[in-house]
Structures are given as structure tokens and as C-alpha cells.
Amino acid sequence: MGYVRNRLIQAVVTMYGVIVIGFFTIHAMPGGPREYLQRQLRQNPMQYGLPEDATEQDIQYYLDEFLVVPPDRTIYEAFFEYMINIHQGDFGVSYIYSPGTPVVELIAAAAPWTIFISSIAMVYMLVATILFGSFMAYYEGTKFDMGMTIGMLFNGGIPYYIVAIILLYFVGYQLEWFPTGGRYNTEYQPGYNLDFIGSAFYHAVLPSLSFILTGFGASALSLRAHAIRILGEDYIRAARIRGLSSYKISTRYLARNSLLPMWTSIMIGLSGLLGGAVIMETIFAYQGMGLLMFEATIARDFPLLTANLVLITFMFVLGTILADLTYALIDPRAEQASMG
Amino acid sequence: MYGATETTTETREQSKDTIIEVRNASVTFDMNRGRGRVLDDVDLDVYRGETLGIAGESGSGKSMLASALLDAVEDPGMLTGDVTYYPEDGDPIDILELDNSDLQRLRWEEIAMVFQGAMDSFNPTVPIKAHFVDTLEAHNADVEEGLQRARSIMHDLNLDPERILEVDTYQHELSGGQRQRILIALSLILEPELLVLDEPTGALDLLMQRKILKLLHEIKDDYNLTMLIVSHDLPIISAFADRVGVMYAFELVERGDVEDVLYNPSHPYTRSLLRATPDPQTPLDEITTVDGSAPDPVNIPSGCTFHPRCPVAGDRCEIEEPDMVEVDDETEHVASCFYQEEGKEEIPAPVSKESGDFTFEVDDTWSRHPIEDPILELEDVSVRYKDPPLTERTLPDSILERLDERYDIVEPPVHALTDVSLELGEEDVLVLVGESGSGKSTLGRTAIGLEEPTEGSVKYDGYDVQAVERGEHTGEILFEDVRRAMQIIHQDPSAALNPYRTIRSSLSQPLKRWHSDMDLNDRRARIKQMLESTGIRPAEEYMERYPNELSGGEQQRVSIIRAMLIEPNVILSDEVVSALDVSLRVELMNLLLDMQDTFSTSYLFISHNLTNARYFAGKANGRIAVMYLGQIVETGPIDEVLSDPKHPYTKILKWATLPLDPDSARETIIEESPIVTEKSPDPRNPPSGCSFHEACPKAREACTQTRPKLDSDGNQLHRAACFRDDPDHEYWQSEPLHGEEREIPGE
């Protein structure tokens, strides 16, 4: 099992690397949480419960009261303290976004929503990839194939946020078919009741759809290329002449073998979507991890930002490991190799 | 001998009962360059119970004809004509008119096919068993009963059905020979009447080829089959078939009983082809080449398609297409040629009825003394690999990473070469012969400094190559001079030439590197002269072409030129001719030999095939080294080793080489293999003592104890690493290992 062991060591090294680089680059950002809040207070003191003509003293007082400002120390001291704390599951408390609330709590509340829309998007993207990719391969060289290839290039070329804005405008505001923001209808009580669940799906449609409509072009083209190569293999021809049904050939012989080279990218696709969620959730005012991260960045909420980065890296590393370890399940040649 | 003759007579008596009839079969397809024709108006009858061989070179349309019998021509090919199947009882079936479900039933239940390339005929992600089950289900057959039948067929094919039909046995866990036999079993699962075999022994080693041919021979009678076997390898057809059809340029040019066609070939192409086939019994000087190259499917010559290459072609051949003419009235032997008699006079008969041994014309010029001043000297060289064997290197990278891990931790190293010593003199020829995995390529690559020996030394011109590379002989000799002096020509020329460079550009590189004094015009002139001297004309035009615009033979010539332009002293030629068509092999070997005269190089010539080895070394008065599991087991002058082999393995290789003569070929095909086990030893844990003892029919107790060495007292040229060579050895007193000692036929 030397392979699994080495693979885990690699993963741990990657995680630490990202935490170190993330911690220092985030702290190297110009400005800090105090400057951010100070500016906010000066511009709009009433929003923070201060009189309209708040004096500099008021503002300073408020800042001292309100901000959970870490004691003055060098960045290296802060780093070591941070490293020790995260091993105890403590990612610190939010400075600004929700001062004093443990970061872990904030993420735990937001992450499920993001994973929810990303998973929906991923499943449909995968289905679309397989359908379009294999149909294009099957009708290789026909007008259908050429038309679809152009379509897929458009699909892969248009950024998801453009589609998101278009959907928001037409389907959301003009036609009013779908809600334009939020995670669920606040009239319903969150929990295991049909109204709430239905509303959650209803609100997830547009964000997911924006991902789906732009996400499968590139992978469908790459599946098409793999499938064309597999279609030329002797075993496909042999199976056809042995009289196997086209259904069996297209599933067991064609699709499975064409997906092999794409397995890893499929498995880490979810973490890729998490990155895309930053802009997507901002557009749809969807209170998930993406929006959390966006606001944390604007506010220089260092602990929250670092924790988000760690989480996304973790998802990525986990996806890669899962892909590698499960590869043997879909390709028996690898099983013999890695388990032998 | 009698047995074989009787079978043929029987076949002839029942031969009038046609099982499948092909009329005017043509396959056309549209290409950018125009309409291509890959099967041209072929008529053929296959008789019930016979074995029909279809012979031809690559691209002659023989596989297309085989596919046409099942209406399985791949798109965009368009099959026209008639293919009629006559069931034993019932009405004739017009195969090309069948609807999909009837066609699906006919395939495999009546006519089955074993495809070329056993490596790729199974789905790599589906167990072997599923292939059987899927096929049975697709034909609504009883799965349990079918699997039972599969077990018994596998048993007849010397396979272990229980292991193969386990749920988790996949193709990559099986050897090439096993896969090929499983493919045969799979083709027989629905009890077809007619079995079409496309190059059934194509990629296999010599001994496995023989084994499969023998099994096919037995299975044909046991299962009452009619067989159609397609092969470029004439000895296989000669040994195996009752009748033969010869294809050239997408047409059948000659057809008849194997004896008639081989003893009395009546089409000039058949005669030339037979003469170009390096057969053990044909005298070396009588092996000639077929000039010119096969036509392009888009541009088939008018009239007789062979006329541009035919020595007896007249004006008539250019205009008029010859019909099949009976060669003599009593047999069904026909050939499509206007000038049969003239052809017979011009091209002498290549196959004589006298069966014989490997023959050599030896004269006094043959050197019979040890090499005095070797240019290349290997002393006790061993190579160990920690990496997975090269065969597994073809897997995707993601899998290889895992293999690397695995081999690093678990597996002992591969013993690729063990204590090999050899010497190569100036203008010398040494042919390395062995089956795949015998270490012949490793030896060659180590000899020319491409691989580092784990132990032992490689000396070029007296200098240790490794030491020179480390800079220990600076001032005396430079490593780059050693590098330049030893070159390699690869097996696959299309992979060896950069596809994005013109021929001129590829050939300019060595000149720029090594002859910096030459300017553009000098280089051009030199390349042109080299191309012309190797018969690539017009050279000016060829220089500006890309590799894909050249035929396989031309590409190989270009890579030979590229090696020669460096003016090396030693050339490793790694299976240079084995990927080429029969008619080109001799031509290229001749080219290499001519080059030797011009450039005075020495050759290390790797071949898995004794007939090519005999031709190349026999022409050059060279030596042979037979390899088994990383060791040289026998070496000496080619004529001595092949006419009087001492090592049992050499004897077995010689036995496995099929002669062209149908009578002796048929006789040998039914012989029991003298080899004790087909399982080859694990190169990671080579057996103790003699590495061949597990398979050797002559092995005795003594062979398991110590390893026999090639004794190197220097005076004896013909040496074998076998105790039997020494009449006083304790071997003769010890007990035989595998029961009674078996004879090796022809010993």
C-alpha cells in the first residue's frame, strides 16, 4: 500500500503549503480590517448607530468596542499562533463580517448551500458532457457534429457570470419565473418540510443553471475526442460483429472507456465550482461560501478569508485523492497495479 | 506424412459442396484524393470442410475480403456484389440483402471471425467472462450451457477455463498467446460453420505461433469447421491450408490447391513473391526482390494491375484486364495472366519438392578465426531493471505511476541481461536472435552505449565506454566520438522520423552536427546522392516530402540513410525489416549489406526470425547469437549454428521455423511441440542452474544445479551454453527432469 501512503503524504504537504502561502499573502494585502471599518464609519456613521456628525473620538471608541482586534505582534508570531490553533480546530473569530463569531461557525452555516448548488450543477454538467460528447463522437464528421462542436466552443467560451446576468435579467426580472436572489423563501421555516425544500430548489435553479449552461462544452469536446479514439478500437468493432446491442456497446464499451482519461478532472470539478461560486453568489445574492468569501475579502476579514482558502484547497486535494483511489474501480488495470 | 496426404484427398472429394460464394465483390470508398478501391471484383468459392488460405502483402485487400464474408466492411467502405451463404440444410442466404436482425444471427452463429491483433480485441475494462456472456445473451442462447461449451473449448485449446472465466480476470492479466486462444474460443462459442481468421498468429512469438497453428489444426477436425485464413506469411498458409488464393492490388491473381500454387506458381506476382520470401531451403542467391511498390487504392494501374512491376508484361497487359485462366485442365488451379509460360521462363520456380535443411553456399572466403582486433567488446555484462518491463510501458501515465510505486517497493529487479560477453570486429555482422523478452534489444542498446550496464564493461576500440563518458580518457578519445561511432536504426520508421520535418530537413541534422564544414549546397548534394543510391527517385522531389508521404519501405530507407550519414562504425539494427512486407525485407537487407561495403560498418542485427537471420548473416559471412532469458545460449558462424545447432533451444527455434514447401510444412505442423512448458520463466526470479531447464526436453538433474557457460577459450567459434556439449560432463549421469527425454523433431 505504499502508493496510498505516499499519496496521503503528498496531500498533507500540499495542504500545509497552501496554508502558509495563503496566510502570508492574505496578510500582505494592503489595508487591514481596522482601516476598512474606519472608512465605513466615516462615510456612513448612522448605519453603525452613531450620530450623523460623529466625531473622530466616537469613531475610535466604536472601533475599540466593536472590533475584535488581535493584540499587536509580528506576523510570524501571529502565524505560529494560527498554526497551533488550527490544529485544535480553531480557525479564529471573524473581525468584521460578524465580529466575534467563530469562523468555523460562519463557514458551517454557508458551505452546505454552496455545495448544494455546486453539486446540482456538477451532476447535470456530467450528464450533459456524456450525452453531447458521445453523440458528437457517434455522428463524427456530420453536420450535427460540426454544429455541436461550434455550440460547445461557445458553451465553453462564454463566462458563466455573463450567462448568470442574462438569466437574472430575462428569466428573473422580466419573466419573473425564478427568484432573483436569496437561498429560500423566508416565510418558510427551515427544516424537513416540503415547502422549505421546494423553495430551496426553486432558488437554486438560476445559479446552478448558469454553471450548467457554460460548464460542459470543454469537457464534452474532450470526451468526444476520447470516444472517437475508442470507437476506432478493435474491440468495439468485434463487439458489434458479435451481435452485442448498441445499448451495451455504447455504455459498457464506449462510455466507460472514454471517461477513463477524464476521471480525475471530473472528481475535482466540485472544488472548481466552489471557486466560481464567489462571483455567482454575489450576482444572485446567495448567502453561501462564495458570498462569504467575497465579503471577507472586501472587509479584509483575515481569519475568515484564510479559513475559506483552506477549505477550498482541502476540497481540491480531497477530490484528487478520491479520484486516484477510486480510479481502480473503473479501470481494472490500475487495480492490479496499485493493490498488487 | 501419410496422415497429412489422406486428409487432403478427403477434402478434395467433398470439395464441391460450396459453403460460401463470393461474386464480383468490390469495396469502394471516397477519399479526398478520389474514389478508392480496396477490393476489386473478386470471385471466390469456399468449400465446406476445407481450409482456404488468402495470401497477400499488407494493403492488398485480403482483410477486406475476409470482412466482406460477414458483411462487416467498416464505413466509409461500400461493399457491392454478391455474397451467398449455403447452410448445410436450407435455402441459400444472400448475406448482403439480410436485414439487421438476420445479419446479427448469421454472424457468430454461422460465420464467426477471429480478428487481427489479439491485443485489442477485448474491452480492457470488462472481464473476459463478460465477453462470453454478452455474446451468448445477444444471441438469446442459454448462458450456462454456452459457458459450459466455452470451458470445453478452452480445455481443448490448452487453457485453464476456471481461471479465465473468473469474474475478475481481465485481458491485461493474460499473455498474447492466451488472448489469441481465448479469441478463438470466443469465436466458436455459438458453434459456427465457417471460421474466418485474420492473421491469427500475427504478433506472436515463433513457438506460440506453432502452438496455435497446431491447435487450430486439431480444432478444425474436432468442431467440423470450414476455415478461411488470411495471412501475409506464406509458410503458415502452406502448412495450414488446402487451397490458397493470392491477392495483389485488391484482386485475386491466382487460386488453386496449395501444392499446385506453390510448386507451379503461374502468375508472375506469385512467383516473385515466393522468390522474395526468405525460406530456410531456398539458396541465398535465389532469393530476389520484387521491384517497385504496390499501387495506391486511388490510382490502380489499368489492365493487369501488376504490369508496372512485371518482368514479362507486354503492351496487352497495360490495356486489357486478364481473366482467370486455367493453368491445367485437371485441377482448379487458375491464374489471371496472359503470359504464364513466359513468366515461368523468366522467373524460375522458387519452391522445390525436395525438403531440406537450412542451406548455405560456403566458400573459402568465409572467415573461421576468432576476431583479432574487436571494435566493440562486451565483457560479462549484466543489466537489471527496477522499472516495470517495457511491455507495460504502453499503459497510460496514470497507471504507470502506480506501477512505478509497486515495482519500487515489492518487486525484485528484472534480470534483463546476465553475464553476456561478445565481440564485434570491423565490418563484422552479428545477428541476435531470440523471442520477445529474451533481452536481445537490451543487449543491443547496452552494446552501443544507450544503456548503462549494471555490471561488466562495454569497450569501444579498447576504451571503456562508461569511463569515457565520465571523462577518464580525455585527450585520448571523446565521448561524442564514441556516441557518433555507434548508431541505431529502429523497427518502426514512422515513429523514428519527425512527422513535421521534410526528409531533407531530417537528413540535414546529422550533417550539420558532424560536418560543420559543409554548406547548404554540399548537404543537398550529399543527401540527393544518398537517396538516389538507395533507389529513392526522383530524389529532388522526395527531399521536400514529409514522412507520411512515403511508403513504409521508403521511410525505412530514409532512416537507414540518416544513420549512415553519421558514418558510424557500428550500427544496431533493431528488427528493421520485421514490420515490412515480405517483398521489401530482402530488398532492405540487401541495402544494408551494400551500405556495409561502402561505409565499412559493423552490424548488430536483431531479429526474432531465423530465416531473416540466415539471409542477412549468410550473405555477409557473419555470426549468430541465440538468446534466451538475458543470456546468449549459443553463438557461432551462422552456417554452423543453423546446420548443426548444439543447444536444445536453438534446435527448437529451428524446428519452429516453418518451411515454405507445403509437404514438409504440413508434416511439421502436426508434430508435438518438444518444449516442456509454454510458461516462460519470471525474469525477476530466474530459475537456478540453466534458465532453460524448466522448458527443455533434454533437461536433467544437473541442469538445475549450475549454470552452463559459453566456454570462452577463444579458439572455438561455435559455442553453446549447454552441458550436452561436453561428453564428459556429470549431466550424462544424472536423471532426466521431465520423465522420458523427448526428441526434438529434425534433430
Automatic annotation (TrEMBL), chain B:
GO terms for molecular function: ATP binding; ATP hydrolysis activity. It is a peripheral membrane protein. Residues 22-274, 401-654 form the ABC transporter domain. Its main location: membrane. One of its GO terms (cellular component) is plasma membrane. Residues 722-747 have a biased composition (Basic and acidic residues). Residues 671-693, 705-747 are annotated as: Disordered. One of its GO terms (biological process) is peptide transport. It is found in: Cell membrane. InterPro entries: AAA+_ATPase (IPR003593), ABC_Ni/Peptide_Import (IPR050388), ABC_transporter-like_ATP-bd (IPR003439), ABC_transporter-like_CS (IPR017871), Oligopep_ABC_C (IPR013563), P-loop_NTPase (IPR027417), Sigma_54_int_dom_ATP-bd_1 (IPR025662). Keywords: ATP-binding, Cell membrane, Membrane, Nucleotide-binding, Transport. NCBIfam families: oligo_HPY, PRK11308.1. This is ABC transporter ATP-binding protein.
